[in-house]
Amino acid sequence: MPVFSCGGMRYQHSWSDVPFSEVPAAVQKNLEATVARAVDLGINHIETARGYGSSEIQLGQVLPHFPRESLIVQTKVAPDPSPETFYRTFEKSLANLQMEWVDLLSLHGINNEETWEQCIRPGGCIDQARKIQREGRARFIGFSTHGAPSLILKAVQSGEFDYLNLHW
User: Cα(125)–Cα(78) distance, rounded to whole angstroms?
Assistant: First the structure.
């Protein structure tokens, strides 16, 4: 992993899902220039999340123009009480990104016991994430968190994750 990432949380047009046709051309040009400059500088980790509104759909217009092997693409999907909803949400992410697979899939926001349980319970979201991995649609499964150190340690020590994404 590189030290620096090109994160998609703040350069999107909207915090809500919107059709690409509603993204102003100037906003999209800014996103395209940001990603291109990051890649030119050697920043090849492109990070986004299903919860970042129009970020994925906007990146889906840009990322296919780069050689796939030159990028480390990460998206994040929040745990859900319904593991099937988690799975379908990931499918929407891939469609938005116009990709067949991502390098990194994070369970987004394991911040408390409730999201931890949604993730780890038998048949829960981690099982769906591993299914996605077996299907070849995500190379590595991790989690992101703003949680307490005790929760982070519990998740790390579970052995269920390939990586973690700490938010400073």
Answer: 9
Contact partners, residue 85, CB within 8 Å, separation at least 6: none
Q: Which two tokens stand for residue 143?
A: 């989690």
CB atoms within 10 A of CB 40: 8
The first and second tokens of residue 96, run together, are 């938005």
For the stretch 125-137, pLDDT in tens is 999 999 999 999 9
How many whole angstroms separate alpha carbon 18 and alpha carbon 107?
23
Which residues are within 8 A (CB) of 164 and not within 5 positions of it... i.e. 6 or more apart? Answer: 142, 143, 144, 145, 152, 155, 156
Alpha carbon distance 12, 3 (integer Å): 22
